[in-house]
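Thread: "does anyone have the structure for this chain?"

Original post by V.I.:
We have the sequence but no experimental structure in hand. Need at least a predicted one for the grant figures.
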Amino acid sequence: MAGILPGSEGSFSSIVGVRSLFESDYALLAGWVHYLAFDLFVGTQIMKAARAHGVSVLILLPIWFFTFMFGPVGYLLWRILRPLVLKADNEVAA
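Reply from O.Q.:
Generated one for you, tokens below.
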């Protein structure tokens, strides 16, 4: 991938900058599909699990933010916080 090294033309501030980070349009397409597929799939799975346990959307907002902005970081945050969130939610319901 071009553009990762210092002094490169690539950036995340515009589509042109993002495009210059990839060597070809096919690589850009593959990266974009992977990004969308991962974030949407993981975000949906988090929502389904939380809904099944009646977790408030307000608790999910920061987790979703990190999932959609930083992918694996948001998923890891969910995996770490999930037992705490579900336990706290069950204690409130009881």
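V.I.: this helps a lot. Confidence is low (pLDDT under 50) at residues 1-5.
O.Q.: and The first helix runs from residue 15 to 21.
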